[in-house]
Write a structure and sequence with these properties.
This protein is an alpha/beta fold. The protein has a single domain, classed as Vaccinia Virus protein VP39 (Rossmann fold, 3-Layer(aba) Sandwich), CATH 3.40.50. Helix 2 packs across helix 9. The termini are far apart. It has eleven helices and seven strands. Strands 3-2-1-4-5-7-6 form a seven-stranded mixed β-sheet.
């Protein structure tokens, strides 16, 4: 994907903020338990920046755990949805490549489904600058379990139908970049599943950047074909969608 295509994908979410908020998966409590274990401190009372917060799916969960959380989001459309749903959560326009915060002001910086939209050569030094000594950077990816037959078949269909379809295989390269900085890095994987309708699966797909960048004439037939394929597997319209959460926690040394 070229830089201009990447920018177009990154900018596409504002127009699908409602679909994103309605159908994207949440995160199991075990993710936040693991963050506390790997950082060695509770979320309650911690100063947290949730960067690339989107519509606030992870932000709200951090808030519920007692964190003093500020959402950081570059998209006006996504931020508007976040504010409409969670008006009491602090919200700042910004992105991880240029954090609008003073040095050493955060205990934890989280990226839920967002770090791959940053330039690690900029976002990692920015995290180091803003984190207090002993603070941590937590990178979270909710990944559909493609070892399951229907999800593997879905990926094959989308790869064939959509030129810009991409999966998060590149996140390993992003995470490896942490090794060049003064962090103590831990990584863990957590499994969970959610139950939703075929309609919800289609709404979730609509919120993906590789669909959001297309006009309706392009994406409509692909989504219709996907709905038909899903109903062959789930004729009652009820879907069980398994996930693997990849969590990387990098604790700042010194």
């Amino acid at each position: 994907m070229t830089d201009s295509q990447l920018q177009a994908h990154a900018a596409s979410f504002g127009a699908v903020a409602a679909e994103y908020d309605r159908a994207r998966p949440s995160y199991p409590a075990a993710v936040f338990d693991a963050i506390e274990r790997l950082t060695g401190r509770p979320l309650k009372g911690a100063d947290v920046l949730d960067v690339g917060a989107g519509t606030g799916i992870a932000t709200r969960l951090l808030h519920e755990r007692g964190a003093r959380v500020t959402a950081v989001e570059p998209s006006a459309g996504m931020a508007a949805r976040l504010h409409a749903v969670s008006p009491r959560i602090a919200l700042v326009k910004g992105d991880g490549n240029d954090l609008p915060f003073h040095d050493a002001t955060a205990d934890l910086i989280t990226y839920a489904q967002a770090f791959h939209w940053t330039d690690p050569a900029r976002s990692i030094p920015e995290a180091l600058r803003v984190l207090r000594p002993g603070g941590a950077l937590a990178l979270i990816w909710n990944l559909k379990d493609r070892s399951v037959g229907w999800l593997r078949a879905q990926e094959e269909r989308l790869t064939a139908a959509l030129p810009s379809y991409h999966y998060y295989g590149a996140m390993n390269v992003v995470i490896e970049a942490l090794g060049d900085y003064p962090f103590e890095v831990s990584r863990t994987e957590l499994r969970w599943e959610r139950r939703l309708t075929v309609d919800d699966v289609i709404t979730d797909l609509r919120s993906k950047s590789y669909f959001a960048v297309l006009d309706e004439d392009r994406k409509g037939p692909v989504l219709a074909a996907e709905r038909a394929a899903l109903l062959e597997v789930f004729p009652d319209g009820e879907v069980v969608e398994p996930y693997s959460v990849d969590l990387t926690v990098a604790v700042k040394c010194g």
